[in-house]
Amino acid sequence: MSCLKKPLAVLLFSWVVLLPAAQAAEPQPVEVFSRLPQFYGVSMSPDGQRFAMERNSADGDLAVLMTLDLSTGDAFYLLKADNKKVKINWYRWANNEDLLVSARYEVSRAGKKFFRTRLYLMKYNQQGGDPEMVIDWRHIQRYQNDVGYVPQFQDDVIDYLPDDPDHILMAIDISRPFEKSVFKVNLKNRSINRLIKGKKRIRDWVTDRQGNVRIGISLNYETGDREIFLRDEDDNYEELYAYNVSNDKPVYISGFAADPNILYINKYLGEYKALYKLDLTTREETLVFSDNNYDVDGGLIYSPATNDAIGVYHPQAPGGRFYWNDRYTPLQKGLDKLFKDSHNSLRAFSQDEQIYLLYSESDTQPGRYYIGNRKEVTIDLLFAQYPDINTEALSDHERITFTARDKTEIEGYLTLPKIGEAPYPTVIFPHGGPGVREYSGFDYWTAYFTTRGYAVLRPNFRGSSGYGYSFSESQMQNWGMAMQDDVVDGTQWMIDQGHADKNKICIVGASYGGFAALAATVKSPEVYKCAVSFAGVSDLDRIVRRARGFLGSKLVKKQIGEDGDDRDRRSPINYVENIKTPILLVHGEEDRVVHVEQSRLMADELDDEDKEYRYVELPLGNHHLEIQSNRIKLFKEMDKFLAEYL
């Protein structure tokens, strides 16, 4: 391993490309939109003087972990990964000098491939040599019942112990899967001390702000029952909440307040998730924050100065955050005024809260990271994620609603191109999941589509998250039914509003969105001129058969359908003979979420029926397009396909 040092000023200047105003010219090349972001994943040291981040090489073959030292102006390149067999999973400062780095790598056993994770420790300016593993397995073996067992995942840090920078707390299943013991690990000499022996079915542990393990969360894989326990200092356990993950509204632990007797929880207030605090001495729950129209996600924001919770993440709030501590509201308002019409997200504060890291993006501005100094009242650009994109060519997203055929109101995002005239050739772009949702903000798919002159609709159809319990649960056993109708109804809305040329509409989707694209060719062949499916599901029954374990199978059946005949009736692969729409199928060879057989078998059926289609398989590709050459290949194939049919 080698380390390269550069002055910070040179790096900042070389990373930012200033582009001219948009001109009436050819759209930018596909590669501009389909490259991996140049930089991402910024982590700030506790003193605010050093930053760690990943930088992708121009060809995307390497991801390099690097650090910047603001006090000296130096940059260091510490570690590289190929984004294929080895990937940098995450990293975080253990203290002002040391970085904890999780790496994910592929292994094979008995003909099956799977990933392992390992945790490493690196100096911020490490010069040469291999990174050092945090866990010396010889120290673990004395606690093992089966010395031959080696856990798949060894990077679960449950507390970074900010007041004890030489130690961290880790949860490791040392004897059997998912039965995690808690260890205190010395980062100086790698010695370990077991604090808690693994308990049956307890999968997760939560610490308070003083570093004490207070909460254990269990899951019974046979029944789906989940229990949340309060642990005392004598290792006694008291049940706080219990529910069934298949049938009940869940309760989530958000974290502790600085007061160790106050626990924040995320649970439903009627239809919508809200944030509560639970007094552990009285068991009294108090509502902290709710939204009458959307779920509150419940992730807490903490002050490094006071060690207390100061706000909660909420996509509908300014910057995606709601602060109940008034000290932070003026800063957020000032940033929103400085960077108008942008999502301005405060990602980190230094220990004294004088230096902060800001991430800012908008519909027409890909993400940028800034370093702010409250004492000096300055803010400086650190880097842009997609510096080559001509932002003058991008379009704003408009949040819209349309009424589905059963009178349900469906929200979505409409983006119209700056070139051409209405009605436009149109891409209907249903999201994956399906239990996620679309937001405003930069989206590289939509940016690509609109700069080609296509209007784009991204509907948050039934089953999307964030719109309450009933709306989210409506995805259950509904694939290809009302969820699909919502997508088609959104397409008709585009036509009725004069946005879409009814003879030039294509549906494009990935994962569940890929299923929706394939289902559209069966259920609504007259609506769509073409369909693109990346990593899409074609056979629902195969998804159920591949589900792992009793609970995995139970949850998948609940989502997709209990009855095999019904699943077959909703599977596009069983209706290939009736398909008239040209289809582009693309799938990653190593997809572990939706197996590549879903597209291979669909392609075989299309071929047998002599249908118009193209199948592209991406070598070593996974479900998330993490390899740049595969992302570019997909976009190039899609570019040709859409140009041909739209």
From TrEMBL:
Cross-referenced InterPro entries: AB_hydrolase_fold, Peptidase_S9_cat
Peptidase S9 prolyl oligopeptidase catalytic domain segment(s): 442-646
Gene Ontology biological process: proteolysis
Signal peptide: 1-24
UniProt KW keywords: Hydrolase, Signal
Entry annotated with the keyword Nucleus: no
One MF annotation (Gene Ontology) recorded for this entry: serine-type endopeptidase activity
Any Pfam family matching the protein: Peptidase_S9
PANTHER family: DIPEPTIDYL PEPTIDASE FAMILY MEMBER 6, SERINE PEPTIDASE S9 FAMILY MEMBER
Designated name of the protein: S9 family peptidase
